[in-house]
Specification:
The protein is mainly α. The protein has a domain of about 35 residues. Helices cover about 40% and strands about 0% of the residues. The protein contains 3 helices and no strands. The protein is elongated, with a radius of gyration of 21 Å.
């Protein structure tokens, strides 16, 4: 059994001069996912919380929908 080389972390690739498009291509993920991964790794490296942490509180079922108000602007009669 051979050891497969592990892909470089997005933060390492970024610090080596790659942009998010190049990181996405190297890691075979979308650019949006590359940016999220880069942000998570940077935050972990700096000891900060995950900027993409999920909200643990579910939406309240049966709550009233948000009211939409029309705003007057030029051209609307």
């Amino acid at each position: 059994m051979g050891n497969r080389p592990q892909p470089l972390p997005a933060l390492t690739l970024f610090r080596n001069g790659h942009d998010t498009a190049a990181i996405a291509s190297i890691l075979k993920i979308s650019e949006a996912e590359a940016l999220k991964q880069l942000s998570r790794e940077r935050s972990a490296h700096l000891g900060l919380s995950n900027p993409y942490a999920t909200n643990s509180r579910p939406a309240v079922a049966g709550s009233a929908p948000r009211q939409v108000r029309r705003v007057a602007y030029a051209g609307r009669g």
